[in-house]
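Input chain follows. Return structure tokens only.
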Amino acid sequence: MPYTQSAVHAFEPSYTRHPKQSFIGGTYQPLADESMTDTPPLHFKARHRAELYTQKTLLRTEATHRSIYIPAAEASFTTCDTDIPAIPDEQHTSSFAAEEQVFNNNHALQTASRTLQTIQAALTTAGHSLKRTGHSIASAAHATARAARTAATTVHNAWHTFTRFKVVQLIIKFFQKAHGLWKKRMRFSYAFYTIVFTLLTSAEVIFLQWGMYTEPTYDKSDEVDQTTKILNSVAGQVTKFVSQIWLEQKYQFLLNFIGIGLIYLALVFVLNRFWIATVIFGAAMTAYGVANSIKTGLRNEPILPSDLSFVSNGNGGNLLSFIPKDQQALVNGAITVLIWFSCACLLLFVLDGRRCFIHCSWKHPSSNAKNIIGTSSRALAAILSIVLLVSYTWNLNIPGAWSHTLATNLGYKPVPWNTYEDAQSNGPATTFQSLVRVKAMDKPSGYSKKTMEEIAARYTKEANKINTSRANILTDSTVILILSESFSDPLRVPGISFDIDPMPNIRALKDVTTSGLMLSPGYGGGTANIEYQSLTGMNLANFNDQLISPYQQLVPSQKNVYTFNQIWNDACQSQCSYAFHPYLKNFYLRDSNYKKFGFKYFRTIDSEPALKYQDHIDDGYVSDASAYQNVIDQLNQSSGKSQFIQLVTMQNHLPYGDYYTNNEFKEADTSTGLDENEKVQIDTYTKGISYTDQATASFLDQLNMIEQPITVIFYGDHLPGIYSSAAKYKENQLTLHESDYFIWSNSSSSSAGSKLSPEESNYSSSNFFMASTAKHMDAKVTPFLALLTEVHQSVPAIGRFASTDADWGTGSTSYLDSSGQLMKKKNLSSEAKQLLEDYRLVQYDQTAGKGYLSENWFNRVP
């Protein structure tokens, strides 16, 4: 059969493109007119667009184009040639391959199309699912809403039915009438507010003053009439404080009334709620009065502004642990009174129709004249009351200022060096406010850079003179400065005696090493002040009397503070000094202050890390034995390097409850004239001294086993405030301000067994300890230590404390000679007076002045 070549699969198309044919002839045929029907014409093949609209008649369309062009004849097209020539095999093969390629491409496109269709189907299914889910949720929401409406309707109907009962209607009408009367309740008058203000302020003044007195005790042999007993009682002294307005024309009561009344007034105007301000004022003043009474009984000192740092540092709860058991009844009674007082104020607040003390409207302050005047008056009153309170307090101790002049005219006579006496005579509120603003020192006459350069040269020369005869270097030895809390010999207190010696070891040690009595500015308290003197060499007597606590009133504002431990830091070119205290780190702001002093770290029971050893004896504080063990560990870790260690113990801190078991001093107490409470406290304290004596002897034995030179400065900061019987007599005041101290060196020191002469050591004050230690060690000194050495030789002890005799010194400062006798400043030699003046200039320069001496290596060994 002959093979016939087909043209079906020809690669090249069998047609040719013809040029576009134009229409020849024709007419424009109108599409429709308004009379025509909506039937399109016969040749209507290309309608572009129609505008569809709806009327009340039949549906009609109106074309956008009113006519269409109709050609006269059809366009002609060239006919295709049907004679297709045969395609050769080669062409046929290539045509088949091309066709196969097209097929493959079409297959790929079809596969992609099927994939897209699958995705589209999946999306459609998902959309339907979401739609069904949405419908389900909507249905559930509608069902819930219907159920809620049904329940609400049921409740509404039930409530409506309930309220239609006659009894319920009577109750509702009763409360409606009562509410109407309640809205019309009277507003308490400003006269009533004034009465409450006067009575409450007066009561708080009397309560504060009551806390400053104690009931006197009389010996059986004393013949005291009943009238004297009444006048000397707490009630009698408080009555005298108030009645002296009329009897002696002394207005201290009125002065205290003004002082705390301004606080009350500021609260009223700031809060603009009289009864709320009354509750806050009453609670705060009562708490202040209780705390003031307790502190006065324990430490013979009222509450001071510097004491607020204890609370601000989060130690308020720990202060409660210092409350003696015999004062717990006072605290409980005050709490009961405050509860009833708060309830009464709350009731008056509810009954009073006057909500705002001064009408005001913060939301619409300018809506009407009443709101404008009221809001402006309320803001002005708050501002003026605060300004008045601050101005009064800020200027109370500034001579010539308006509040100081006012107070002086009312009988104010400040005794800032003895805050207890000041609070008794002027009132604790006035004493507190007078110490809010404190200036450390007044600028001494002649203070200048030239003067300080002359002083630096003078005592540098003196240091060189001293150092020529001394062989040792201070920093070649480790020095341990130990402040033993409240340590003193109870047998030196008049009227106190025991069959057993509570401190035989330390008593024996004092006979063979440098030792004596330290004149302490405190009695029953003031630890941080004595500590400050021993670390800095400064004496409180040089500061203004208003500066009560340098740790809280001075050091925080100083940029650079010089302390003796920095001598060791300079020697090792690092921080080679460490501090330990087995109590809280924030008391007296020690944590921040020690950083300024340059201690490498300060370990306490709440530091990070804390003290390793914190053992207690029975229910007391951390024992001295544990405190000493922390120091031993530090020495063992030092690898024989010299360092300075500061330790403040806590074992013998007040209160002195009967918490020691097997206290042999109860039976050994042979004291006379003591009441039961005083005896219990003294016996407990004496047992603690016995524990300290034993622990200290063991500690020194351990130091003797260490093969590196170590020197210990040990001193008691003050006597405990438990000797109420002895404190009644003026002649015992000096004794109650003398504690024990010693300076001792271990067997590895070249100064082991050294003992300064009695003239050099029998009496001292803590600011001289480092100078005496350098002399005990035969060590070279800095110009500052040379100055302290010279002052100590001329005036062995200087102290600022309560003076009962005008001959004790000038103002609040007392001076002792080497035999412990009081000296008058006017009887001092001209050399001693010059030394004291130089000392004052140096202290001013380093604390409140320009710091010129820091430029002259005044605190470094020449």
